[in-house]
Structures are given as C-alpha cells and as structure tokens.
Amino acid sequence: MNIVFIVNNKNNRLAKVLPGLEAYCRQLNLTTVQFLSTLRPKHAIELAREAVQNGCDYLVAVGGDGTLNELINGMLQADIPAREYPAIGLLPYGSANDFARTAGISNSIEKLIELIRSNTTQQIDLGKIVLQKSQETRYFINIAGLGLGPEVARNIEGSSSVLGPGFNYFRHILKGFLRYTKKEVSCTSSSWKWQGKLLQMAVANGRYFGKAICIAPDAELADGQFQVAIFGDLSIWDYLKNLGKLKKGIKINHPEVSYHQAHEMQIESWDACGIEADGEFVGLAPASISVFPEAISFLMPPDTP
To answer: Which regions of 32-171 does DSSP assign to beta strands (E)?
Structure first.
C-alpha cells in the first residue's frame, strides 16, 4: 500500500496538519507513506504527475478545491495507462471545500485512513475544458464557471489576508460584485442554446461552489452529465436577494435565470470572458466543455450521490 499525500503549504497549512497526519500513519504502521509539500502555485500538478509515474496506490490532496484540481490534472498528465491510475483522496483544508460537501468528505484523518484500508471508492466523472485558441486542456472535478467566478478566482490568486483565507475569499467576492461588467456569451449544447449578457454560469459536476452556495442541487458525480445554471442579465441586487435560497439549494424563479443539462457545450464570447475550473482561473472563451464519464476512482463514502 503506497500512499502519497500532497499538502498545500499556503498559509503555513503544512505545519498545522502534517504532524497529526504523520503521527497517525506511524501509529497504524502503514506500509509506504510519502508527504510532499507544495512550494509555489501549480506545484501540485508537478508533484502529482511525478508521484503517479513513480507508482502509487493512493494519491491524497491535503488542501482545498484548487489543490485537488491540480492533483487531478497532474495525474492525467502522467504517461501511464488510465487503468494504472491511483485512487484519489481528499483531506479538505481549503478556503471553500465545496467538492467535499457534495462528496460527503470531512477533514477527519481517521475516516480517510478507514476509507483507504477498506478501499472504499467510487468511479466518478470529470469535466474537460479545451481552450480553443491555445488548445490547452484542463480538467475539473467540481464546477467550471464563466463570468463573475473567474474574475474572483483571478483576483484571489496570489493574494492573502492576515484575517485568514476564508475572509480573503469573501472579500474578493464582494469586490468582484462591485466591479464586474457582464459579458456577451453564447452557449450551445446538443439540445439547447443560450445567448445573452452573462453574470455567472456554473457547469456543474458537483453541487456547491462559492463557499457553500448550492448552485446545482440536482448534480450527481457519476451520472455522465452536467447540470448547468445560467444567471444572465441579472442585477447584483437580485442575485444577493436570492443568495439565501441558493445556499439552501432552492432554484431561482427569475426570467434571467435558467437551468439545463448537457454532456458537451461550446462556449463563444464577444468579450474577454474568463473560465475557471474548481476556483482556478484557466483562460478565456472560446472553449468546449465536455463530460469525461467515470474518469477516476475516488475515496468517498458509498452513499454519496
């Protein structure tokens, strides 16, 4: 049993988590355990790619949605057959931890090790983004966003706050609301098309984004399709007024809000419309977004939807 933990060391998270994690692994006499620490942005991609190519049974992200996103993209860059991919795990210690909410995962070290020892996994979908201008490919496990979300993600990158990552996240969301200008966007799937001014679009594999906003209550991690929530020419006031409903997973009844399903979508924009994946800014439209069904094996409770 070869386990590799990749720990996001931003905000000294390593010092807070690693001693307890190492001690618990020693206590259980686990066979081979490695702890790798990120030293810079996107470092988890490199660490994951190398760990997978060197061979491991379990690859665990210790961090948030961004760390998990980098780990998965690194694994898929590894030059090995997909059948040899390790099972992916998560100890959620990030700013938002939105994927963990959908997956029913806590930050309990004991529960994670229990999942590993019992090999309790599920095959789940990923999303695939191809940026048309650069032909760069990025994968996401939770939600890809267009419009306001990518602007917030780009502003958060490289920033910090003495009051902690949670406050920093909230501060940039407020700044994004005040400064964002809606983009003219078109989105085309095999069964529907939408075009107009866009405040926010969520292409959802998981249910939550933006720190516990249940934007896609019908999303399931292994059903082979996205739930798509589109907030068009909606005022900031209308969005904020409905935020309480969104947090409870209640769909918004408004002429500028619509909900769809899709396996694949083409995104076009006449403005510089950004795209983010799991809270990480990846680039600008035009792009294609498609489901990669049952792409990975994930350590999670068996009753997760």
So the answer is: 32-37, 58-63, 87-92, 121-131, 137-140, 143-147
- Model confidence, pTM: 0.92
Residue type at 70 in one-letter notation: E
Contact between residue 13 and residue 63 where contact means Cβ atoms under 8 Å apart: yes
Q: How many degrees, rounded to 5, is the angle at CA 67 between CA 62 and CA 72?
A: 105
- Beta-carbon contacts of 164 under 8 Å, excluding residues fewer than 6 positions away, are 11
Contacts of 245 (CB under 8 A, 6+ apart): 252
Q: Cite the residue boundaries of each domain of the chain with CATH code 3.40.50.10330.
A: 2-125
282-303 per-position pLDDT tens digit = 999 999 999 999 999 999 998 7
CA distance 199 to 177: 9
Q: Domain 2-125 is classified in which CATH homologous superfamily?
A: Probable inorganic polyphosphate/atp-NAD kinase; domain 1 (3.40.50.10330)
CA angle 235, 239, 244 (to 5 degrees): 160
Mean pLDDT in consecutive groups of 10 residues from the start of the chain, 305 residues: 89 70 77 88 96 96 94 97 96 90 93 92 98 96 94 67 51 65 95 96 96 95 98 87 93 96 96 93 96 97 79
Domain with CATH 2.60.200.40 in the chain: 128-293
CATH of 128-293, one of 3.20.20.80, 3.30.70.270, 2.60.200.40, 3.40.1260.20: 2.60.200.40
Report helix, strand or coil for 153: helix
Task: Identify the bridge partners of residue 123 per DSSP, sorted by sequence position.
Answer: 297
Q: Each residue of 127-177: pLDDT tens digit? A: 999 999 999 999 999 999 999 888 877 766 655 544 455 555 555 566 666
What the block records as the tokens of 243 is 């935020």
Q: What is the CA radius of gyration of the chain?
A: 19
Q: What is the pLDDT of residue 177?
A: 64
Separation of alpha carbons 97 and 113, rounded Å? 19
